[in-house]
Amino acid sequence: MENKEKYFQFPLFLMRGLFIDKEKALNDIISYGIYHFSKMDYDIEEVAKQLMYGYYRSGLTNDLIVLTQSYIDKESIEIDEDNNSFYGSEFNPETEVYQLLEIFENDNNFKEKAIEFFQIKQAYSFLGIEGSVENTLKAGKAIEKIIPEKEPFPNISKSLVFDFRDNEKSEFDLIQFAAYISIRSILGRKGYCKTNKKMIISRMFGYKSNKDLPDEMDPAIKDLFIKYSNRYHIDKVLLHLELNWNIITYSRNIRGLYVGNGNKVSIADLVLFAETKKKKRKIENLKSAKIEAREKALQQLNKEPHLNKQNNYEKSTI
Fold first, then answer.
1. Which residue from 41, 123, 258, 294 lies 20 to 30 Å from 33 (Cα-Cα)?
2. 10 Å Cβ neighbour count for 112?
3. Collapsing DSSP states into helix, strand and coil, what is residue 223?
């Protein structure tokens, strides 16, 4: 069966507001996710057609209303006042589209705004969302301007983000949600990888690594950050992710831990990979230790000439 779940991709730093203002943080994630998704190919004739549909149905952004009306007032666009270009159930603004295409050739600003409008409307349709195109564009562009360099871009399912935005959640629910996104951001497209708890905790609070944490945590979340930096509490979170979120972890006699996406890898495969890597590392360490010991022995021989003479004498008498 085809997986019809839709996903929002967003910059990790938006997670910094999750424990301060949950609704705003998740609205920002949704808005940017739509904006990011909307960057798709387009047919310029369809752009013009969508623009006229928005005009006739009073659905344009304020900027597009002003621009479109200015060309109508100059009679560069001839509108259909009787039927709004509807012929039965079919919308066919053939004349308006032809005129718009000519206008677009000389007015790049108008063209770009029309394309943005079309792309957001297409994203809404694909994602099954209704909302304000104007607000989505405003929020998406504002966030885009402040994305840190080399920022991780996790993704989150539409159903999950709306569930957490629209329903009451406990502190522990939100912590699990944050840890889930953290691990998904670390995994990227990989089925499994090695990481550590410091990295997971940093990303839970919207920072790509422990090195990127601020010198002084926001007072609104400082206690929460300290609490879940404690081994007992973070281990409890990781256990619940395994039980309820299809995340796999393995850390027996390992510095750090391995994490896996349960949709891509089994517990058995993750453990086998981790133990194989551990065995290979032991063999490599043993080889390195022998090489180091040999180099030290040769250095010692060079420092003690009488040993070299003795060795040469023994060789000559054989």
1. 258
2. 11
3. helix
